[in-house]
Amino acid sequence: TEPLLKVEGLKKYFPIKSGVLGQVKNHVKAVDDVSFVVHEGETLGIVGESGCGKSTTGRMLMRLLEPTDGKVFFDGKELTDLSNQEMRKMRRDIQMVFQDPYASLNPRHTIEKILMEPLNVHEIGDPKERKKKVHEFLEIVGLSSYHAKRYPHQFSGGQRQRIGIARALMTNPKLIIADEPVSALDVSIQAQVLNLMQDLQKELKLTYIFIAHDLGVVRHISDRVGVMYLGQMAELADSESLYEKPLHPYTQALLSAVPVPDPDFTREQVVIKGDVPSPANPPSGCRFHTRCPFKMDICETTVPKFAEVEKGHSVACHLYKESRPQ
Ligand code: SF4
Ligand code: MG
């Protein structure tokens, strides 16, 4: 079966302007040739340090940001071809949950009004039905209808994220793009929100893209995980292979920093040096070569191909012959 979402060669270059005339001096290559698919009903985790392009990727999928290049196919349609009006309609099926629910909830509106808005925008139901649906979804996310008349500031961080999730669900979307939905929450609350999202996925047959900066957070919720570095996909695999047998040195390093739950299981420690280079001036060849403990000569000159090394396990690294030029 066709994947629900297919992303091909997605790029976002932001111009860097300078001088009084504002000439374009260079580009920040925030996302640089990223491809992946998402199957119906699954969760794809996308992980990477800040500035790796994961949020930019998420926003381009909804065309909240226009891609510089590349194609996005959703449910058989090419989103990059749709007019703005057609895209607005399409957003009924793709919704986003944000890191900071407080910033995305209008402080002067009641929860009822906030949750009603997507129904008004997409002209779903009559006023009575809309109200009923708001109350129903408050219950679904673990709040109550008596919360409907309250304002965002009257809720805790975890409750606000439940409201953010309810708002994303109002239009019965197929795909939810959650951009660090639990990063701003206390660890104890994180688990509750993650459990809620998993329950909702089963109940409502949702497909998720779950963006995080930490491999630990997405481990249990993701069927597959992609690791991004400096605007590119370094590795993508099903969760089990990725966590137990990471192939890319960057993934190995990220996992070295995650505590291992099983004490009998030891992982080779890979330590990376230095900071992430600027995406305006990414290193030649493999973008990770300035920090990689396994760097070879070819790594400085040649971009490794993102290639399938084992079934369902793709990686961009010259340590694997599939990534090397023929
Ligand atoms: Fe390291 Fe080379 Fe692999 Fe890049 S291609 S991750 S520098 S070994
Ligand atoms: Mg981000």
TrEMBL record:
Protein origin, superkingdom: Bacteria
Gene Ontology MF terms in the entry: ATP binding; ATP hydrolysis activity
Annotated Gene3D superfamilies: P-loop containing nucleotide triphosphate hydrolases (3.40.50.300)
InterPro entries xrefs: AAA+_ATPase, ABC_transp_ATP-bind, ABC_transporter-like_ATP-bd, ABC_transporter-like_CS, Oligopep_ABC_C, P-loop_NTPase
Database matches in PROSITE patterns: ABC_TRANSPORTER_1, ABC_TRANSPORTER_2
CDD domains for the chain: ABC_NikE_OppD_transporters
GO biological process assignments: peptide transport; transmembrane transport
Keywords on record: ATP-binding, Nucleotide-binding, Transport
Domain ABC transporter: 5-255
Keyword Transport carried by entry: yes
Entry similarity comment: Belongs to the ABC transporter superfamily.
Protein name: Oligopeptide transport ATP-binding protein OppF
